[in-house]
Design a protein that fits this description.
Length: about 450
């Protein structure tokens, strides 16, 4: 008897990617096969994104494509919160579930494509780290669901609920399994990483027979003992983050922080209802850099938020010049259905939003270019993500670069027969442009 096949389409952020990995792992555990195309699938699961309108449209288009190509579709993910919108456009979907609704998805799969009765998970082994959609050498480690903040431009709490932290023993066991499987970098993700454990009141748990609190610093400290790269994402600059900088300075975890500042104008931050916006962030950044000179900070910003004046925007540009952030992304404000920011007065015209975006990126490009020029002559350790097909070049990343969102280190004139994806390389930086570095190989590192 042939095993039933399920097609899978995964959209959205790394947190959604982890949800997809969990569902795929359960499917494989129960004996389902994952189809490589629509034609070979008995049904298709589409994991959607609903964060901004462009993502909503991409998700609706993906559902439509799956229905046209296959006809039997289960929808899950953040957009699943708005079942009415999905069914208005695609009334023939079999089932709609919300974000992180793993059990609901599996029940729907069982309903329409029963699992093979002869499957034995002890014989048909699924790897301990589960099914992953990332390359073998790095993986996302999701430590919590939901968020306690109520930022006016965001609907994540309505889709994923309030903060629910995973037990720290479970998080660390997963990280340990990932390392054993060959993962060399874990990227810690959540909606609010530095709030980890707040909802559990930092409940005591056990890992490797030792007591440990479900707490941000304790998690960072334990992960730092695994001997792999640990990269922190979505970290709000709460005061207790200062202690994690000490771990970075000591080389325990990567000196890299992804902090979503979003703006610098106190008025705009208040309209956004951003947490921790009263902090003197420039002073914090200076103190962190004094403690850990190698620290790299990336962030994202929104321009054209309702009520943002030219004075507010200029304040943001001035802040950016002072902050000298290493990696920065920028978005023009986009109304999200259900977000309270939609009801704010003084929406910014689209053409002004675009002008501000271009001015913002011009300033940050100058900062990025100057910072990368300072890297020339440095010796760095990089992790190989890919090998160019037509050229003797390895596409790698340093500790300063997260996959998909930051720059690359292009290691030139290599012997590709001696290097593979996932290798550590020691390189010397020889050149730089606005976002990427270029390097020559010194040696392939064994660890």
């Amino acid at each position: 008897m042939k095993s039933p096949k399920v097609g899978f389409v995964s959209l959205g952020c790394p947190k959604a990617l982890v949800d997809s990995e969990r569902i795929l792992t359960q499917l494989k555990t129960e004996g389902y096969e994952v189809a490589s195309d629509y034609d070979g699938a008995d049904l298709v699961v589409v994991n959607t994104c609903g964060f901004i309108e462009s993502a909503v449209q991409e998700s609706l288009d993906a559902i439509g494509e799956a229905i046209n190509e296959n006809g039997r579709v289960i929808v899950t993910g953040c957009l699943g919160k708005d079942e009415e919108k999905i069914r208005q456009m695609h009334p023939n979907v079999l089932k709609v579930t919300g974000a992180a609704a793993y059990q609901d998805v599996m029940e729907a799969v069982h309903q329409y494509v029963p699992a093979p009765p002869a499957h034995n998970p002890y014989v048909d082994l699924v790897p301990p780290q589960g099914i992953r959609l990332t390359p073998k050498h790095y993986a996302y480690l999701k430590i919590s669901e939901g968020c306690n903040h109520r930022c006016t431009f965001c609907i994540i709490p309505s889709m994923r609920g309030d903060l629910v932290s995973r037990p720290i023993g479970s998080v660390l066991n997963e990280a340990q399994a990932l390392k054993k499987s060959g993962v060399k970098e874990v990227l810690v993700i959540s909606q609010d990483t530095s709030a980890y454990g707040v909802d559990t009141k930092y409940k005591l748990d056990f890992w490797n027979g030792q007591p440990i609190k479900t707490k941000f610093y304790d998690m960072c400290e334990a992960l730092g003992k695994l001997g792999i790269w640990v990269r922190l994402h979505y970290v709000y600059p709460y005061p207790h983050v200062d202690a994690a900088i000490e771990l970075m300075a000591a080389g325990k975890i990567l000196p890299y922080l992804d902090i979503p500042f979003q703006h610098a104008s106190p008025k705009v931050l208040k309209l956004m209802k951003r947490p921790a916006h009263s902090e003197n962030t420039l002073a914090r950044l200076q103190a962190w850099r004094e403690k850990c000179p190698d620290l790299v900070i990336r962030s994202t910003f929104v321009v054209g938020f309702p009520g943002e004046t030219e004075e507010d925007f200029q304040m943001l540009l001035d802040w950016l010049q002072h902050a000298q952030l290493d990696r920065v992304g920028c978005f023009t404000y986009s109304p999200v259905e259900g977000a309270t920011a939609n009801d704010l007065p003084d929406h910014v015209p689209e053409e002004i939003k675009q002008q501000r975006y271009e001015r913002f990126m011009q300033v940050q490009q100058q900062i990025s270019t100057a910072k990368l020029q300072q890297r020339i002559g440095q010796v760095m350790t990089v992790l190989v993500d890919d090998l160019e097909e037509d050229y003797p070049v390895a596409v790698a990343r340093s500790y300063a670069d997260a996959p998909e969102i930051d720059g690359h280190v292009f290691v030139e004139d290599i012997d590709k027969s001696q290097i593979k994806v996932g290798d550590w390389l020691e390189v010397e930086i020889t050149d730089a442009d606005e976002y990427d570095l270029f390097a020559k190989l010194i040696r392939v590192k064994s660890v």
